[in-house]
Hints:
homodimer, Immunoglobulin-like, 2 domains, six-stranded mixed β-sheet, molybdopterin cofactor binding (chains A, B), oxidoreductase (chains A, B), molybdenum ion binding (chains A, B)
Amino acid sequence: MHDDPITQASGPARVAEPGEGLSDAELALAARNHGMPLEALLHDTTPPGLHYVLVHYDIPFVPPDSPWPVTVDGLVRRPLTIDVAELRSRPAVTHRVTFECAGNGRARLLPRPISQPWLVEAVGTADWTGVPLRDVLAEADLSPDALEVVFTGADHGVERGVEQDYRRSLPLAEALQPDVLLAYAMNGAPLPPQHGYPLRLVVPGWYGMAQVKWLRGITVVDKPFDGFQQATAYRIRQAKTDPGEPVTRMAPRALLVPPGFPDFMTRTRVVHPGPIRLRGRAWSGTAPITSVDVSADDCRSWTATMLGPEPEHPWEWRTWKLPWIATPGEHVLAVRATDAHGRTQPLEQAWNLGGFANNAVQRVPVVCLDG
Amino acid sequence: MHDDPITQASGPARVAEPGEGLSDAELALAARNHGMPLEALLHDTTPPGLHYVLVHYDIPFVPPDSPWPVTVDGLVRRPLTIDVAELRSRPAVTHRVTFECAGNGRARLLPRPISQPWLVEAVGTADWTGVPLRDVLAEADLSPDALEVVFTGADHGVERGVEQDYRRSLPLAEALQPDVLLAYAMNGAPLPPQHGYPLRLVVPGWYGMAQVKWLRGITVVDKPFDGFQQATAYRIRQAKTDPGEPVTRMAPRALLVPPGFPDFMTRTRVVHPGPIRLRGRAWSGTAPITSVDVSADDCRSWTATMLGPEPEHPWEWRTWKLPWIATPGEHVLAVRATDAHGRTQPLEQAWNLGGFANNAVQRVPVVCLDG
């Protein structure tokens, strides 16, 4: 098994050795995928190219107006094949929701899990337009023994020796939530290639791995789905032998628009003394955001910020702001969100093998000049 | 000088120590900027989010329909202030041209210059629409002693202790080329924020540092511009004391659409045995591409590829293709472009301190399965 060519091309999951720098493969992922530059927190919706992107394999090339039949099969009484053009002709629904990669923050963990090396910026918010999945499932007429719904993307590759199409499932109760969409538009335009053109799944509140792109198949099953991305990847575990818990909804997180201006290379923020309006956004996938606190002394003391209006959709990020007087010297700003379930952000992240659901507070060193 | 806060926030140019892994700052740049995933070579024009982006400081936040006055001053008889809305009302010109970052390939150099750690994918091609710069310069009526034109962007930051707006110049003869544009649209839509909304410079054939984004000032001068991005950065030098040569036009380069499918983590390409159509694009900023050769044996032997039609614009990439029969085992594909001036790509890159204009051939390891 371990000598076959596909296993050789791949490799096991691992964490970095102490002091081990970023590998060429991690850099290759960092060069092609991208986070949201944090100044883009100023945009209510994140334009393509600023919204984070994480693609496991290749971005499928789909020419405009290609037919794109999507099959609905498995435990349904009326299997369907629906073309995207037909979906576009139905009444459209739009939800503004925040997506975050489950691996956001991974590169800060020690030891570092070897994978896409996100710092803190794997996030974005968009208006996603499409048709509710549950209408399509109702049309297909679910069997009474339906337990999960499996979604298959057109992206194809290898992961830890397993050749696969990207595939994830949702429990039936989640798949039937009214805001789960088969989406064909982002911010009012056809999906960009890297966001799943021509069709993707949108599961508001869940981490990005659930948002299956280039969607071509929907299969209803009566057993828990045990595909690679469900049973092997995207689980919170301490050791490879630990079955772990599945990664599901987004933990609360707040981010700060870094104030002032950056140094190109160090990325240190530089400000002039005086009043500065700190601002940013916060979100959670489990309960609405109820408070955001800011520290200007590296997490020693915290001040409540003013929250913006409650967003229309519970899984859309919420604005916050706080005036701050910058004084000459070095400061470390930090920001922490809490949701209506009382979940908040840790100052130090609990480690897990895959580096998932890491919502440790963002810390932003700032140098304030003398004048 | 070296103790002031702005110098402390910054730091000198340096190269990595032997064995030194990627720094947090290099990773921060890699997470926010992004290359073009190589499978996007299949697109004639590169959509936003796939086209490479390199931003020195923050992306300015410019709300839609903000007034954006651009000043034209210095050695002109008729200083102007033109609003972008006024530029949009003029007859529009569109050029399809290829952009590449001057630092493309930097992360492969040994020792590695510490900066944005590009591998090979910092490229993209777009339709840029705007008005010819020379029409605006003619309107401003150049003084006879005009030597260079300096372009100022709205992006502001620090670099090696120097606080600055991003600023670059062109020699007058280059600025007066008919295809140099003040561009307000990319691929038929308003510029995305990260590509310079609402106005940028487009200098076909030149590396990306010349394509000043968020353009707000055009100043005609009678001396060689000695700003940071001209006299300190973007020079090809062996040592800090070496004045070096300026980085200008793009060296020839060809890239290959990686065949088959990838392993997520190693990025190794996997193919099945049999015929494969190798294809890709090639470009140069000094003369049209005249040949592209492919090696399937790690640069030991080369085969001429079939070039696609000559592009409409000389600085737009050109397609190439070559059939290849994959046989079980490991292969290293490579591709090399040559332009009409006989310039080609080295197998090993000559090193320089900034890691600029590195056009060493792309090598793509491929594992072919047994069946």
